Amino acid sequence: QNSDVCNGCGAVYVFEKDTSGWIQTAMLMASDATENARFGWSIALEGDTLAVAAKYDDACGHNSGSVYIFSRTDGGWSETAKLLADDCKAHEHFGRRVAISQGTVVVGADNTQQPDAKYAGAVYVFENDGTDWTQQQKLVASDASANDYLGRSVAIDGDTIVASAPYSDLGASIQNTGAVYVFVRSGGVWTQQQKLTASNAAQDDYFGQPWDFGQTVAIHGDLIV
């Protein structure tokens, strides 16, 4: 997090395996690195595409967040895009979590606000047309409420996205049970398919909450964890 170059900017280290073991082949930083942006807060890799979140980047105001795309060509990594939400604002934490599958990048922004729903959270979907990355859609919960924090964890596999909202309530009297929302893509459009909760959900379970810097939802085929 700290260096002589930029305090709290963050960095991502790339390791590759050869006959002697794993060796560091690159150290990546944002081209516009700023102090306390925390580049590397969340990362996702697929093939030759790497997505790196800087949750506290101030691109659209204090702690609005951003995601950088790096591409590998001839063994070297280069920054090719910086992703921002079309409606980016301060304090949204765009990049709280990031995931990638089949050329689609998913970004959780758990502090995103909606009318009458502060910190309801949102998930942004980006696609590459072969040249540029563009925002395809902004996903929100059908029953979004204040302080749900949708997007605190995200995962994608093909045409299915899962996103956690760990402070979602189960009714008016059972608070912070948490939930995971499932979105599916059909005809290029993402829609909410289901809201998942634990069968024994109880108050303050925080279902889907990452208590550390790890991932807390995962998907593979027809299996969600």
Describe the model:
- The chain is mostly beta strands.
- It has no helices and 16 strands.
- It has strands spanning 12-18, 21-28, 39-46, 49-54, 66-73, 76-83, 94-101, 104-109, 122-128, 133-139, 153-157, 160-165, 179-186, 189-196, 219-220, 223-224.
- A four-stranded antiparallel sheet has the order 3-4-5-6, with no helix packed on it.
- The radius of gyration is 18 Å and the shape is globular.
- The model has no long low-confidence stretch (mean pLDDT 93).
In short:
This protein has 225 residues and is an all-beta fold. It has strands spanning 12-18, 21-28, 39-46, 49-54, 66-73, 76-83, 94-101, 104-109, 122-128, 133-139, 153-157, 160-165, 179-186, 189-196, 219-220, 223-224. A four-stranded antiparallel β-sheet has the order 3-4-5-6, with no helix packed on it. It has a four-stranded antiparallel β-sheet with strand order 7-8-9-10, with no helix packed on it.
